[in-house]
Amino acid sequence: MSDTKKTEKIVGVKGMNDILPADAPLWELFENTVHTVLKSYGFQQIRTPIVEPTALFARGLGAVTDIVEKEMYSFKDTMNGDDLTLRPECTAGVVRSVLEHNLTYDSPKRLWYAGPMFRHERPQRGRYRQFHQIGAEAIGFAGPDIDAELIMMCQRLWDDLGLQDVRLELNSIGDAEERNRHRADLIAYFEKNADVLDAEAQKRLHTNPLRILDTKNPTMQEMVNAAPKLLDYLGEESRAHFEGVQKILRHNAIPFTINPRLVRGMDYYNRTVFEWVTDQLGSQGTVCGGGRYDPLVEMFGGKPTPACGFAMGVERLLELMKANGEQLSPNQCDVYLVHQGDEAQLQASGVAERLRDAGLDVVLHCASSAGIGSFKSQMKRADSSGAAYAVIIGEDEIAKGEAIVKEMRGAETGGNQSSVAFDAIPDYLVDQIVGHDHSHDEHVHYHH
């Protein structure tokens, strides 16, 4: 390669996005809120690998689902020939782990997970090839009470995040035998109306006819609306379970609509299925989906174990938070330390450590390739850091043994400043910040 040729820049993989520091406060607010809500219902976190055996998804999701057919990132491990896949969702991995470690041997488990998932689909707003999900799985619980609890947990989360326009759609898809009777009648009905089916529907007719009910094609709507409804095929047990879920939701004033056409994309669901939908994100309306998947544990070689869960798309919910006007400024620190001269630099590093001991977030001004910068340029930095206070140490301050502590926020106080002895700075600032600003309480951990 000749020296004159410029080194080519490498850019990220299409549809896999960088989450930049400016977005971090929103992600943190979201994640912290979710963690708090999940914990308040007794859910514990589980972390499973991003890479799983390909067979796990082929068996769990069903070989004819869109995900397995065309969206999975699968590859051969060149070291040993294993067939591996980047997880397109997390339920299969969680169930594998529960079985492998025999987690439910003594009692049912409430579990939650968070992390990146991977699907090779066309990137669009709120839909990426690496995207993030947070989900909960309740494994070993058989009654309608846990289905309702998962739904109420979601509702609490939307309330805590201040999301207005998220509504609940509910359905029951019964048990396998009820679905099979319905499926046979459905296929017969669609065959009778074959002239109305589009190419996609023709393809699905014998592999996954339920998905035809999901169609967005307007010319098929009328025919699909008149199709046999699964709810009419439910037996006594399935119906009682579904009634039980509704009863608890009504008792707790959780509004919902029953959508008889609601199905889930994976093969392993049964009975209760639900989606939280919004009209604020264009056509991509679902922000969270879930339901019961009693057959899955057995499909993975375990003994029959009831289970229920949901997953939410983090990026979509963040879009929704932004649409609801959630503005978070990236606030880097509580205190910014400005200094000039070698002695001052040493003193400033010590003061910064003492402030951190007291539980404050501190940025110490450090030199860039252009040097340490003038007081004026350092104060500019202090201002843009979002700090509430600047601590200023120069030669005069070293001679006096005290620093200037300047208020950066609150123009109404005209940026008051005081001289404070070096040793007294931590107590002085903790008093100022806690006295004035209770929004800092979360991340000021007092060691007093």
Describe the protein.
- The protein is α+β, with helices and mostly antiparallel strands and 448 residues long.
- The longest helix has 18 residues.
- Helix 1 runs antiparallel to helix 5 and helix 5 packs parallel to helix 9.
- 36% of the residues lie in helices and 19% in strands.
- The protein has 15 helices and 16 strands.
- Strands 1-5-6-11-10-9-7-8 form an 8-stranded mixed β-sheet, with helices on both faces. Strands 13-12-14-15-16 form a 5-stranded mixed β-sheet, sandwiched between helices.
Chart the SSEs and their pairings:
Layout: H1 24-40, E1 44-45, E2 51-53, H2 54-61, H3 66-71, E3 73-76, E4 83-86, H4 91-100, E5 109-118, E6 130-139, H5 144-161, E7 167-172, H6 176-192, H7 199-204, H8 221-225, H9 236-251, E8 257-258, E9 270-277, E10 286-292, H10 296-299, E11 307-313, H11 314-323, E12 335-339, H12 342-357, E13 362-364, H13 375-384, E14 389-393, H14 395-400, E15 402-407, E16 417-421, H15 425-436
Parallel strand pairs: 1-5, 7-8, 12-13, 12-14
Antiparallel strand pairs: 2-4, 3-4, 5-6, 6-11, 7-9, 9-10, 10-11, 14-15, 15-16
Helix pairs in contact: 1-5, 5-9
